[in-house]
Amino acid sequence: MRALVYNGPRQVVVKNMPDAKIERATDVLVRITSTNICGSDLHMYEGRTSMQPGRILGHENLGEVIEIGGAVDRVKVGDRVCLPFNIGCGFCENCEKGLSGFCLTCNPGNAGAAYGFADMGPYAGGQAELLRVPYGDYNCLVLPRGAEEKENDYVMLADIFPTGYHATELAQVQPGDNVVIYGAGPVGLMAAYSSMIRGAALVMVVDTHKDRLALAEKIGAVAIDDTEGGGIERVMELTGGKGADKGCECVGYQCCNMHREEVPNLTMNNLVATVKATGRIGVVGVFVPEDPNADNKLEKRGQMAFDFGQFWFKGQKIGTGQANVKAYNRFLSRLIEKDKVKPSWIVSHELPLEQAPEAYQKFDERRKGWTKVVLKPGK
Ligand code: NAD
Ligand code: ZN
């Protein structure tokens, strides 16, 4: 099969790889028809992780079931399925509670399992023609008839739409809330969209990319361009000096004064400054430090200094972590099915798999207009 393979920092290549196949009776084999590039892929692409060369990337996958293992009951050959980026077993203590992002079976002793990820198990990614889905009955979201027509909407259920929603759940966004979101990448834009779905009164999105901020405005958010600073003051002004009720971190890694030079615009500090006292902060951005010289990247992962003193004084609350996609993807898919939401507004490029290396480069450079790429294997 053709697949996108990681070869080292900023080197990916599309090449022939052995076909994915059923390995266990609970597996499902999917012919991938849509697979997105994600900001999370960039942690691997840029060489910030322990990702080994030769592995297939891709965790935002949708396709058609072409084979099922002997123990699969619910999912049928021919079903169109969207796959949560997290892989869960469905029966461990965490999956039982709906915390499928922290499955204890699929990546024991670690923080959950995912396709095509460093440190999240050995699973191959789906930026390929075929994908093996473990525990298929649990992990496949079977899509309604006619899903092909809205494929670019449904594929957002693999990650960024539920992840954006998760940010608002961690922050407990409620009707009438004023919400500030740091990051107008795909995840931040989906957090803004989710805030609207949850009835927020005011949604403010902070970034420096004009084209991404324009998308935030298009869905009714207030865009705050922080290129020349002033973002904090603008949020305070828009909230009558009180600060936002809730805030979401949708940027992730930024090096900080613990590693290198001071970063004046650390999103965590900006959140502490712009969320009101006792307000809630949801952090879905992944904190992997960009430190090519770190002798032990894993040990240093995510260590950062932020203003804990101010956070404590303001009595703020915080929620963090990978999105438990299965907790959200079914109700969000119903909203897509009934035309209540259309997350495909985020898609900027639909490209054949063969063009993935170029797409990675442009998305990594945050080139103007490259917001979200959907790859179409087999086209
Ligand atoms: P992205 O890199 O495309 O977008 C990040 C955006 O943040 C960019 O537009 C960038 O300009 C902006 N930014 C950078 N520094 C900023 C600052 N100081 N203030 C405001 N904006 C700033 O990535 P994405 O796909 O939107 O993903 C965002 C983060 O979410 C990544 O860290 C990704 O790994 C993470 N993520 C988490 C989960 C989860 O389950 N928790 C799932 C998917 C992605
Ligand atoms: Zn993703």
TrEMBL record:
Record CDD domains: PFDH_like (cd08282)
Pfam families, per the entry: ADH_N (PF08240), ADH_zinc_N (PF00107)
A single GO molecular function term of this UniProt record: metal ion binding
Keywords linked to the UniProt accession: Metal-binding, NAD, Zinc
Domain Alcohol dehydrogenase-like C-terminal: 186-315
Cofactor(s) needed: Zn(2+)
Keyword NAD recorded: yes
Domain named Alcohol dehydrogenase-like N-terminal: residues: 25-136
Signal peptide from the UniProt entry: none
Family designation: Belongs to the zinc-containing alcohol dehydrogenase family.
PANTHER family assigned to the protein according to its UniProt record, in alphabetical order: GLUTATHIONE-INDEPENDENT FORMALDEHYDE DEHYDROGENASE, ZINC-TYPE ALCOHOL DEHYDROGENASE-LIKE
Protein name per UniProt: Glutathione-independent formaldehyde dehydrogenase
Organism this protein belongs to: Caenimonas aquaedulcis
